UniProtKB/TrEMBL annotation:
It comes from Bacillus salacetis. Gene3D superfamilies: 3.40.630.30. This is GNAT family N-acetyltransferase. It holds the Pfam family Acetyltransf_7. InterPro entries: Acyl_CoA_acyltransferase, GNAT_dom, MshD_Acetyltransferase. Residues 6-149 form the N-acetyltransferase domain.
Length: 150
C-alpha cells in the first residue's frame, strides 16, 4: 500500500457524516438493500455507542474517507471500504492493524449474501466457525475467526 496515498487516523466526529455516507453506501451495495437505520441514528451510533467498546480508525485517501474499522483486542465489529476503493489494499491494511493489536485471535461476522467479504476474510486467514441470523437485518450470517497460530 502506498503510504503517501493513504493515511490511517483515529476516528474523530469531524468525519462523522462522510464516514456514515461511505459506510451506508458500501453496506447497501454489498447487501442489495437499504440501511435500516436513519442517517442521524447511524451517526449517533458511530459517535457515542461504538467508541465505548471499540477503537475506530479511518483510512483517508486524499483527505477523504476511504475506509473505516471498529475493533478491539478480540473482535472486528465493523469494516467498510468506500466502493471506489475496494480492492485497493485498504481492507488488508486495516485487518493487519487489528491482528497486530489483538489478543491472538479475532472474530467477526459477515453476511452470507456478501460473497466478496467472505473471499476477502478467508484470503487473510479467517475460518468459518459458525452460522446464524442473529442480526438486525435478519439475514443469514457467518461467524469467522482468525488466530495467530493459523
Amino acid at each position: 500500500m502506498n503510504q503517501d496515498k493513504y493515511k490511517v487516523i483515529t476516528y474523530t466526529p469531524d468525519y462523522a457524516d462522510e464516514t456514515v455516507r461511505m459506510w451506508r453506501e458500501s453496506k447497501e451495495r454489498a447487501l442489495g438493500r437499504k440501511e435500516l437505520h436513519s442517517f442521524e441514528s447511524h451517526v449517533y451510533f458511530l459517535n457515542h455507542i461504538l467508541p465505548e467498546t471499540h477503537e475506530v480508525e479511518l483510512v483517508l485517501a486524499g483527505g477523504k474517507v476511504a475506509g473505516m474499522m471498529a475493533f478491539n483486542e478480540s473482535e472486528i465489529s465493523q469494516l467498510y471500504i468506500h466502493v471506489d476503493y475496494q480492492g485497493a489494499g485498504i481492507g488488508g491494511l486495516l485487518l493487519q492493524r487489528a491482528k497486530e493489536r489483538s489478543s491472538g485471535s479475532l472474530t467477526l461476522y459477515t453476511f452470507e449474501i456478501n460473497e466478496n467479504a467472505q473471499r476477502f476474510y478467508e484470503k487473510f486467514g479467517f475460518k468459518v466457525i459458525g452460522r446464524g441470523n442473529d442480526n438486525e437485518e435478519n439475514l443469514p450470517d457467518i461467524l469467522y475467526e482468525w488466530t495467530s497460530e493459523g
